[in-house]
Amino acid sequence: MVGYVTGFGNPDWTARTHSAATTIAPAVFAVLSGGATCMGRTVMDEMAYSINRENKHYGTPKNICSPDRLLGGSSSGSTVAVGGMLVDFSLGELCLYYKLVVFIFLLHKLDQKVSFVTGTDTRGSVRVPASYCGILGFRPSHGVVSITGVIPLAQSLDTVGWFARDADILNRVGRVLLQLPEVEPVKPTYITIAEDCFFQLLSIPIHRVTSVLVKSVEKLFGDNVPTLKHFKGERLEDQEYNVAPLAALSSAYRLLESIVKPDLGPGISERLWAAVRSTDETIDVCHSVKTELHAALTTLLGVSIPLGMYDNLSVSVSLLAKYGSDGFLLNLVETLYGTLKEQIDIAQELSY
Questions:
Q1: Is pTM, for the whole model, over 0.85?
Q2: For the chain, does the N or the C end have fewer beta carbons within 10 angstroms?
Q3: Residue boundaries of the structural domains of the chain
Q4: What is the pLDDT of residue 337?
Q5: Which of 165, 177, 188 is CA-nearest to residue 314?
């Protein structure tokens, strides 16, 4: 946003190393042109390098659903703004150019005052906090929303996403950002639930999630919910996933370190220095993992959908679709949402 200084979740980055922006990011310009009014900026995880949203400089926002729990990151400020009903939608904060910072907006359309928030999603920075706080979070196809003006975390994965409490608003904001025409929803050929592969990791009864989703899908579209049990492979034991971060973050930290001695929160400094001191061998491993991750993430888009509460904690599910199916997935969420809420009420009354 013109006239504002990026924060990147760290006061040294804001006050001592960067000047005010002279241009506006295309993603922000698009929603403003679509009728939005910017209501404010929020604070992100420090250096976009956490998924917990514990920032020693600015404090930790409260999880609206579960005040004694973390709210996820790094687009946590955006999530709280929507979940706390300060706005109806927001752009997520992981990397937008004005980073303390994400932007929260009011959108004036159809004689109705609507607000929203957007953010960016690299490894889950929209979907994770959305799921923790019981709101909708959308990660579009990689590259379909401009990331010009975005501080990079991992350029080949960074994606601008957005949050909303209501599926209609989520869809409307998406059509502005993605420049999509209004079309009639298309019935999905089928919706596959990966119950056999992943839901064993849940700490709540599996049926609390699957029953709500399956019954909603079958009510609207018929019996078309297969499983993935035939594709389930052996679990990989003792895998080492703690590879070094991408060079972009290392470069950003080297710049910051060369100008000031930044005051970084616990854990952030250690991880960043690990990236700076990466060996060639570690970097080769990182590139290999990045290639596989990029191939997976750039062929998919996703949305986190709240499924109510269980034991005073938010329950959510993610829907994935193939690359380029953004309009289809937004329409599907809007179509499903009313029925999902009916099934959520039934599930919560039955306490399962």
A1: no
A2: C
A3: 1-351
A4: 95
A5: 165
